[in-house]
Amino acid sequence: MMYDIAATIGISALAGALAYLGLSPRMAEIIYLPALFEPHKFPRGNWDMSWLDQKQGFRDVSFPTANGAKLHGWYFRVPLASATLLVHHGNTGNVADLVVLISLLLKTGVNILVYDYRGYGKSESNPSTARICEDGIAAYDWLAKEYPDMPILLYGESLGGAVACYVAERRPTSALILQSAFFEMRRIAKETYAFFAMWPPSLFQQPYLNNARVLAKLACPVLLLHGAKDAEVNPAHSRDMFQVSHSEKKLVILPNTAHTEIDQNDSELFLASVTDFISRLDIDASKVVAAEQR
């Protein structure tokens, strides 16, 4: 009798442990993909380029990932640009939904490459945590190969902030700009759905997205931007990342902005903050001249 009870308890405990592990974000990532990624496939979005100032050089580009999947992006070249800003967007939409952000960033005087992760826009395949990080590396490597003398700055919006941090840890960058980014994955996950608190970071999707850890050891200048009205990622995430960063840094809270779309009333503050940040960077002028001559 006692043996039967012990066996039942043991089996129940084993089943519970297997369920705990099996339903974790790391082991059952496919279950949580719809909550993490909301891609808009072409033709959804504003693909009409009539908004673009024709004085700005524009290229519709594509480049491969390490495993051969083709990614799509837009490259904007600005005369006498001091650097190129590589933009990693958030978990929703595609490049064609970023018209407001692109228009503002073009006014800062830098070139821009904005691209879609796998499964977004015109890019092939489907997204995952590992894949969007690989896609960020692929975009950087294409840019570095195509324009080898032009300094690269990284810009990450929301989930794209984690991609930007992933790239910054693995590739040289002159600066990092994060907009509406989260501190680390487990913190934002449990703030969104409380049950995620049951799992430690090791049981979340890999690579584990921990922006704070990257910022704590990153040496390049960092600009943190966050909307005061952000209901998806609390501005406390950016405030806490600002505290852990040991590099030259600046935090700007946009008083009228929610999560990602820059509110019209904050456009001047946003533009002034980004422009001033970039203007203060120590960028090798000789490399910029060489790149402009290509």
Low-confidence stretches: 285-294
- Under CATH at level 1, the class of the largest domain stands as Alpha Beta
Q: Mean pLDDT score, rounded?
A: 91
What name goes with the CATH superfamily of the largest domain?
A: Alpha/Beta hydrolase fold, catalytic domain
Task: Give the biggest beta sheet.
Answer: 8 strands, mixed
- Per DSSP E runs of 2 or more residues, the count of β-strands stands at 10
Give the overall shape, derived from the CA principal axes: globular
Give helix % range: 25-40%
Overall SS class: alpha/beta
Could you tell me how far the N terminus lies from the C terminus, measured between alpha carbons in angstroms? 83 Å
- Rg calculated over all Cα atoms: 21 Å
CATH-defined architecture of the largest domain = 3-Layer(aba) Sandwich
Description of the molecule:
With 294 residues, this protein is α/β, with parallel strands linked by helices. It has 2 domains: 1-36; 38-292, Rossmann fold (3-Layer(aba) Sandwich). The chain is 38% helix and 18% strand. The protein contains 10 helices and 10 strands. The strands form 2 sheets. It has an 8-stranded mixed sheet, with helices on both faces. Strands 1-5 form a two-stranded parallel sheet. α7 (211-217) packs parallel to α8 (236-244). The radius of gyration is 21 Å and the shape is globular.
Ordered list of secondary-structure elements with their pairings:
Elements: H1 2-22, H2 29-36, E1 38-39, E2 57-64, E3 70-77, E4 84-88, E5 92-93, H3 99-106, E6 111-115, H4 129-146, E7 152-157, H5 159-170, E8 175-179, H6 185-192, H7 211-217, E9 222-227, H8 236-244, E10 249-254, H9 267-279, H10 285-292
Helix pairs in contact: 4-5, 7-8
